[in-house]
Amino acid sequence: MMARLDRIRTWSMSPAFLAIIGLGFLFTFYDIFDINVSFVQMCTQLVTGCTPETALDSLALPTVLNLLGYVVGTLVLSPLSDRIGRRNMLLITMLITGLGSLYSALSPDFGNFVVSRIITGIGVGADLAIVNTYVGEVAPKQSRAKFTTVVFIMSALGAFFGIWLGLILTTGPAPWPTGIPFATGLESGWRWMYVIGAVLAVIAIILRFQLPESVRWLLQRGRTLDADVIATDMEKRAARRGPLAAPNLDEIPTHWPPARRIPYGDIFLNPVYLRRVILLFCMWFVGYITVYAFAAGFTTVLTSLKFSPPEAGVIAAVGSVGFIIEAVVMSFIVEKLERRYWLPIGTVVTFIGAFVVALGGSSLTIVFIGAILIFAGFNLWVSPSYALTVESFPTRARSTGFAIVDGVGHVGGGIGILILAPLVPHLSVLGALMLISSFLIIASILAQFTAHTRNRVFEEVSP
């Protein structure tokens, strides 16, 4: 049956399933990015003595604990998807995330807001691991990174909506381009940001009930009949676009290693997967320092560098367009190169954007161009690296492996903000942006030691 699936060269599930998966990613990235602009307003209302200029000092705590929630969620919940199925856990993780978002909206004080971000992080961290695992397992081998990137387009849209809604709801009206003339500046604007997030989560949960289970997971668990039903439907859909090649039985293993009761054993007790865990964890940990400094703190960083809050918010909002452009372009070209090469390319783009922002001076048009390049650059490598991570672990422990390296790797984002927050206000714009971007250089070097996975059968790369 695996040979039957691996001969399919196109998306062979209902197109609606891709949209359903994407909607979940839209919400998770909406949640990641909605704090970018809205945090300044929330801080001034809930933190005693907080001003727009000092908000960066308070950003570290909710961000770090949110990312620690990622770690808890992904380490506890992701392995369950290796035990009870991808689809069932996708429902649970989205429920947790939605409840966390609603709690954020209702938080009466900063302490409760921080707790709500921990809960949200628990759901988001596990959801990212399981969604990427699911997409990798149902996509054809020739285009796993492509369809991971297609879903990532929805992530870009989530980031875009999160930042722009934050700008509209939490900042006052100001002439363009130093603000938005129709911005509402609602006193409770930041709360409405999280209400919207909770609504998106409810919609995503309802739609996810329609998703089928991963055939690879069903086979690993010995549920051959259930797997055959889904595989047959996938073949029928793929055959509508042309005849299918004969199954290549030589690429398929004749023996499935039994899954351990605790999936962590399949990772840490295998020398090959242990080496991969260490390498990929270091890559994600260092790379996320740059990603989260920009994703969660770009507006706050710019404000600390003496940009006005509305102006900083507009720069971040315009910059988010680069995320969308990058994701769309990458969906066409991501399979042209091995996964590891996209990280240094993204690093170069990020540095160019940082230089442009710093040299833009009083010209907001130039600063906008630089911000677009920054958002394109620090996101460019993420979707192919998602695909690489999924491909680097066996079906019996794939979500678990992803959870360890990506989920725990998110701690790098929190630690980065803790380290960078006190340094940034004392640096020039160029110095601050160069410092934030520099961690991608280390991640790029580490990526060059990862496995070759493009266009290879899962079981060949990770038996």
Tell me the series of helices and strands, N- to C-terminal.
HHHHHHHHHHHHHHHHHHHHH
Provide the CATH topology. Growth Hormone, Chain: A
Shape: globular
Mean pLDDT: 88
Judged by helices, strands and strand pairing, the structural class is mainly alpha
Report the total helices: 21
Runs with pLDDT <50, length 5+? Answer: none
Fraction in helix: over 70%
Beta-sheet strand percentage?
A: under 5%
Q: How many structurally independent domains?
A: 1
What would you say the CATH architecture is?
A: Up-down Bundle
Quick tags:
Sugar_transporter_CS; 21 helices; 73% helix; single chain; membrane; Growth Hormone, Chain: A; transmembrane; MFS transporter; mainly alpha
Short description:
By secondary structure, the protein is mostly helical. 73% of the residues lie in helices and 0% in strands. The chain has one domain: Up-down Bundle (Growth Hormone, Chain: A).
Task: Describe it.
InterPro entries: MFS_dom, MFS_sugar_transport-like, MFS_trans_sf, Sugar_transporter_CS. Its main location: membrane. This is MFS transporter. The protein is mainly α and 463 residues long. The chain has a single domain (2-241, 259-461), classed as Growth Hormone, Chain: A. Helix content is 73%, strand content 0%. It has 21 helices and no strands. The chain has helices spanning 2-6, 15-46, 55-84, 86-106, 110-138, 144-170, 189-208, 215-220, 224-239, 264-268, 271-295, 298-304, 309-333, 342-360, 364-380, 382-391, 398-407, 411-420, 429-437, 439-447, 458-461. The radius of gyration is 22 Å and the shape is globular. The two termini are 16 Å apart. The model has no long low-confidence stretch (mean pLDDT 88).
